[in-house]
Amino acid sequence: MRVLITGSGQDSSILTFLHKIRQDDVTVYTRRRSDEMSDQMKLVLSKLKTMELNNVNFVYGDLTDYQNLFNVVANGKYDIIYHMGAQSFVPPSYENPISTHMVNELSAYAILEAVRKHSPETKVFLALSSEVFGLPRQIPQTLDTPFDPVSPYAISKTALAYISEYYRRVWKLKVYDFITFNHESELRGPEFVTMKIVKNLVENGKVTLGNVNAMKDWGYAPEYMAIIANTVMHNEPGRYILCTGELASVKDFVEYVISKVGGRYYIDPSLFRPIDANRMTCNKYQAPVIPRFTWRDVADIMIKFVKEGKTTFDEYLIKLRQEHEI
User: What's the pLDDT tens digit per position in 291-301?
Assistant: First the structure.
């Protein structure tokens, strides 16, 4: 298959690895960086090189260069497009709501308009987020839970939900969107709280945090990407939800990591968000596949990577491929 993936962060890099081990033709659309490539993509490419599968095509461009993005999609005639590129970190969205909107919402219009006009059989995946529920009106959340976003990032992801539904209903395009809850891995950037905790405790023996009482549902990103890819390849277009069904607080996570590697944590009230989306977990039985990895498994995988440099994502995905599960 011909596959286009936007972005080069955790999820984009995992999907690149997943589709390359399937022998698919993969193109990654990403912005040009002074250091050439994200750390996540560099690691994935190094793994693929050892397997002689590193012939990934890169197209460089900004997600706000809408005409360029439109042209790449229009000319590519891809079988699947995963629109993973985004301003994906919640705290900066409070200070940069306009750019968050420009990156996260309008880029989706460029992709979907190109598909509508030039390749209407293309399957398009849009990444939503559990942040759309904000201060959830019910626990656990379901596909019927009303949206209640409490950050510009969450508002942008809520807009994507309506954009997705519009192109499915009005233009009959094959659009898939997933409300994915927090998913972490050894490829997570250090600006996210889970890797911040692991990296600082392992390397410095201490970490400073904001609201440790915030409760999240953390899954394993490679497992989530495998579920998403299989759904897009084999299921009908529509809206899906994906979580582990298990809540844990930031305090639970940091204390678990401390039990493994030692250290201490400190609270800095300046790190608190204006409003913290909280107690977000879903009815896992609505997911296309119920995830097997728990948040403790995720913490263990991240600790192993930071301490020893050993990755798990590649072994896990290769095993799935060998068992014909992806």
Answer: 999 999 999 99
Q: pLDDT for 156-206, tens place per residue?
A: 999 999 999 999 999 999 999 999 999 999 999 998 999 999 999 999 999
Taking the C-alpha atoms of residue 277 and residue 326, their distance in angstroms, rounded to an integer, is 33
* Half-sphere exposure for 227 (CA within 13 Å, toward CB): 25
Mean pLDDT of the chain: 95
Strand partners, 26: 3
Amino acid at 238: G
Alpha-carbon distances of 184 from 96, 190, 245, rounded to whole Å: 24, 11, 15
Has residue 129 got a pLDDT over 70? yes
Give the integer Cα–Cα distance in Å for 155 and 146.
13
Q: Is the peptide bond before 274 cis (omega within 30 degrees of 0)?
A: no
Q: Give the Cα separation of 122 and 118 in Å (integer).
A: 9
Residue 58 tokens, joined: 């890169």
3-state DSSP of the chain: CEEEEECCCHHHHHHHHHHHHCCCEEEEEECCCCCCCCHHHHHHHHHHHHCCCCCCEEEECCCCCHHHHHHHHHHHCCCEEEECCCCCCHHHHHHCHHHHHHHHHHHHHHHHHHHHHHCCCCEEEEECCHHHHCCCCCCCECCCCCCCCCCHHHHHHHHHHHHHHHHHHCCCCEEEEEEECCEECCCCCCCCHHHHHHHHHHHHCEEEECCCCCEECCEEHHHHHHHHHHHHHHCCCEEEEECCCCCEEHHHHHHHHHHHHCCEEEECHHHCCCCCCCCCCECHHHCCCCCCCCHHHHHHHHHHHHHHCCCCHHHHHHHHHHCCCC
Q: What topology is assigned to 2-188+218-244+281-292+312-322 in CATH?
A: Rossmann fold (3.40.50)
- Which tens digits make up the pLDDT trace of 214-233? 999 999 999 999 999 999 99
